[in-house]
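Email to the structure team, subject: Peptide/nickel transport system permease protein model.

Hi all, the expression group asked for a predicted structure before they design truncation constructs. Nothing fancy, just the tokens so they can compare against earlier work. One-line instruction: predict Peptide/nickel transport system permease protein, return tokens.
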Amino acid sequence: MDSVKRAFDSDLAWSFRHSPVAILSATVALLLILAAVCAPLIAPYNPFDPASLNLMNGFSRPMEPNAFTGDSFLLGTDDQGRDVLSTILYGMRISLFVGFAAVVFAMIIGVVAGLVAAYAGGRVDAIIMRIADVQLTFPSILVAMLIFGIAKGFTPVHLRDQMAIWVLIISIGLSDWVQFARVVRGAALVEKSKEYVEAAILIGRGPIAIIFRHILPNVLSPVLVIATISLALAIIAEATLSFLGVGAPPTRPSLGTLIRIGQGYLFSGEWWILLFPSLTLLLLALSVNLLGDWLRDALNPKLGD
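Reply from the structure team: attached below.
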């Protein structure tokens, strides 16, 4: 109970309670994440089950009975008769999974690279940072598309749909590790010069123990901020790749895939197929991004000045 009370009375908790934007964005993000996680329980239909689809329900307008079957759908249906609400809930699961996994993958690579560069210094530091500088000269979405294309080329044809999600995670992760590496390197250089690191060296601690047991815990605050903001960017990157047709397969549509499908029917009058997945993506990315901005200002008050 004491630990809970200390956490509740902390500066971070106080800042959260006094920030309406943080409370609203956290509430929206939490509701969307819970809806995605609980999709099998709350979705009216399973859009991935062909046996539950009826092509006669295709292009049903929101909350209007279908002219052929009489069925009504809250957000309408798409061209295959899939309930749009159900496809959004299941699509969010894929978008969030790709986003979280890609951020964790990028964070692991970037944190390790930044710590090694800062502690080793010299030629190792120069090589890692020059690789990071070269990657920064290219837009991350182009890097992700390049990596996705190369990885897909090495994947057997019969496994491409099954491996598409994992290839997507690797592609986005490899395109976003630079931010973690640069920030962690800067923070680790400051920590490296402090007395506790020198004391650890004097008592015979090895480099790996010093890096991961002493320096790493003291550079996690900026990593948490970057990870939160990168989550929104990773979700948008996944949606962009899927919209371009190089992301999630149509058999397992993410929000980006749903937007791509809906865009094809926008000018024929079926606006709901595009509108509702787009609004969901907007709310998800915006809420996570605003939460990351608040976390950055709360952990680093000087940045908000």
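The mean pLDDT is 85. The first helix runs from residue 2 to 8. Ping us if the truncation boundaries need rechecking.
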